[in-house]
Write a structure and sequence with these properties.
Elements: H1 3-28, H2 38-45, E1 51-52, H3 62-72, H4 84-96, H5 107-116, H6 123-139, H7 142-152, E2 154-156, E3 159-160, H8 162-170, H9 179-187, H10 202-218, H11 222-228
Parallel strand pairs: 1-3
Antiparallel strand pairs: 2-3
Length: 229
């Protein structure tokens, strides 16, 4: 076998191995928390630190579950991973204001990006995000997706997950968060490095009352209530 053919064989084997590995990893993460993510590694290497403490779904305040849905993805219980209306709006906004990028990502898409991928806006990463979003919606259920999101999302500089954020900002567990405290944490999500609770940034001060209003609109929805339990 000549050298190019040997390289091609090795490449094909590597692709097959990676496909099998990611599929097994997807299934394992239905029950086991991700050991680490690329974003967490990047935070540690960049000097921002890494504070995290994964907790089970029942150990997270229902207000925290409601707050992130109200803030990030109000159709989360109903869609299959993608909110095409929000994506269309974000694309129209970005065309008008290319210097101020707005995302249209669902919670499912953010989990796909945070757990399996790296930060960035390349077409390759976006394509992989679509694939992993489809797969977690297929293999996991909505509660598992929301649980992983609440455990791995960056919620402050070097602070990952609702438990670490609750401990850092309010000196209490995620299970004990009040409605207002959960809204304040959710208000940090668009830009957790700049939107801070300690000290209270202007953006969080403006945004968290809006999150509280959205929570009030949602908390009568039976599908939302089912996910809060």
């Amino acid at each position: 076998m000549n050298f190019p053919a040997r390289v091609w064989q090795l490449f094909k084997r590597a692709i097959i191995f990676l496909f099998i590995f990611q599929f097994v990893y997807l299934i394992v993460l239905k029950w086991i928390d991700p050991p680490v993510t690329l974003t967490q590694i990047g935070s540690l290497l960049s000097g921002r630190g890494l504070k995290r403490d994964y907790v089970d779904y029942e150990d997270i305040s229902p207000y925290a579950k409601l707050a992130v849905m109200a803030s990030e993805d109000q159709l989360f219980p109903d869609h299959e991973g993608f909110d095409f209306k929000s994506i269309k709006k974000a694309m129209a906004y970005n065309e008008k204001k290319p210097g101020r990028i707005r995302g249209g990502s669902t919670i499912s898409q953010q989990v796909a990006k945070n757990v399996f991928l790296w930060q960035g806006r390349s077409w390759i990463r976006k394509g992989l995000e679509v694939y992993f979003t489809f797969m977690i919606e297929l293999i996991w259920d909505k509660k598992r997706i929301l649980e992983v999101y609440l455990n791995v999302a960056e919620m402050g500089r070097g602070i990952f997950g609702i438990e670490a954020s609750a401990r850092y900002n309010f000196k209490k567990s995620a299970k004990s968060l009040t409605r207002q405290e959960a809204a304040m944490i959710a208000a940090c999500l668009p830009n957790p490095k700049e939107y801070t609770i300690k000290p209270l940034s202007r953006n969080v001060a403006i945004r968290y009352p809006w999150v509280l209003r959205q929570m009030s609109h949602l908390d009568g929805d039976p599908d939302v209530l089912a996910l809060m339990k």
